[in-house]
Specification:
363 residues; 0% strand; single chain; mainly alpha
């Protein structure tokens, strides 16, 4: 049995990882919203983020390869184009539409609408037979749908165009996360490590989103004084720095999610995600002036009940099943990170005391 000091250290570590995840997740939401007030090119911003993500992911893979001494997986062109491309396209559209919607809607409406992605993830999980049919899922769907309706009902800051974009992004997000789960579960591809998955997704995401950028923003951006028609160096540097900060935040978000799941469990990520949405709404009301009436708050509470029920059901059924091929064991050296690795004996004892099953369930 672990001593109280070990429990305390584990608790402090978990709180620190959750706070790190909150900082990047909430930070990039507010940062992108702030940036869109003066830089009306969300697709170009997304492309810059993808490029920065690819570079940082490549550096991380190189560091992991030097640490472990094992070469990282590189897919063949056949597997890359046939098996990774659909996931990359869905991911690019999800992120691109989400960022695009910030031009039209508030952070509150974005956060609430984006939470409906659980519905589409459930739907596509059933289609791809990743989720077993369950009568409780009907209750989950009703709660989340009712909560979303109540939140948007008589909203004083409702925008149909932005709402439609986020809803479409949530729908595509359901496809995205389902395909990502299938991709990571294919043992023959060797993409069980999320860093390797991110590395292979970024280039195809860039290529998939680039035509949409050219159609919607290409001509406008080429004649904009913020980048290509600048007359002074300082505005150009300001635009590049602000875009780069967003890219670093985007990479930090993905990396912090990976750390949280790797060192705790997907249940911790799911539960912390629920409270993160509450924190986002409270900060949006306090800092951005988002207005919400009592019906909106009640709808948010109903939606959170549906998400909480979904998390609880997945936890219950995963506890009553034996290990499957869909589970990733964090004890594998493949998932150990140099920055978190401690002395051999202490690390082994700490891992043996882990109570939660390390299962990567994509949300």
């Amino acid at each position: 049995m672990a001593c109280p000091v070990q429990f305390l250290c584990r608790g402090i570590r978990t709180v620190g990882l959750v706070l790190l995840y909150y900082a990047f997740s909430i930070g990039i939401t507010f940062y992108n919203k702030w940036l869109m007030k003066g830089f009306h090119y969300p697709l170009f911003m997304t492309l810059v983020h993808l490029a920065i993500n690819f570079c940082l992911t490549a550096l991380t893979r190189r560091a992991m390869q030097c640490w472990t001494g094992k070469p990282r997986v590189i897919l063949s062109w056949t597997d890359y184009l046939h098996k990774v491309a659909p996931t990359a396209l869905a991911t690019a559209l999800d992120i691109g539409l989400s960022n695009w919607s910030f031009l039209f809607i508030t952070i509150s409406l974005y956060t609430m609408t984006k939470s409906s992605a659980v519905l589409f993830i459930l739907f596509f999980s059933l289609v791809f037979k990743l989720e077993e049919p369950n009568p409780f899922l009907v209750v989950v769907v009703l709660l989340i749908s009712s909560g979303l309706f109540m939140f948007t009902f008589e909203s004083t800051q409702f925008n149909l165009q932005g709402f439609s974009m986020v809803l479409l992004a949530s729908f595509i997000g359901g496809i995205r996360w389902t395909l990502t789960q299938v991709l990571m579960q294919k043992a023959e591809l060797g993409l069980q490590n999320p860093i390797d998955t991110m590395y292979h997704l970024q280039p195809l995401m860039f290529v998939g989103l680039f035509p949409l950028f050219l159609y919607n923003e290409g001509l406008s951006l080429s004649t904009s004084e913020k980048l290509f028609r600048v007359t002074e160096l300082s505005p150009l540097l300001y635009s590049l720095i602000t875009l780069s900060i967003g890219g670093v935040l985007a990479f930090g978000l993905g990396f912090s999610e990976f750390l949280l799941v790797c060192r705790t469990s997907s249940l911790t990520l799911s539960i912390s995600g629920i409270f993160k949405e509450l924190c986002t709404l409270l900060l949006a009301a306090a800092l951005m002036g988002d207005r919400m009436n009592m019906i909106n708050w009640l709808g948010f509470a109903v939606c959170l009940c549906g998400i909480s029920l979904h998390v609880g059901l997945k936890t219950y059924y995963s506890k009553n099943k034996g290990p499957s091929l869909r589970q990733l064991n964090s004890k594998s050296p493949e998932l150990e990170l140099p920055l978190l690795r401690q002395n051999g004996d202490d690390s082994a004892a700490e891992f043996n005391d882990e109570d939660e099953e390390q299962e990567i369930t994509l949300h």
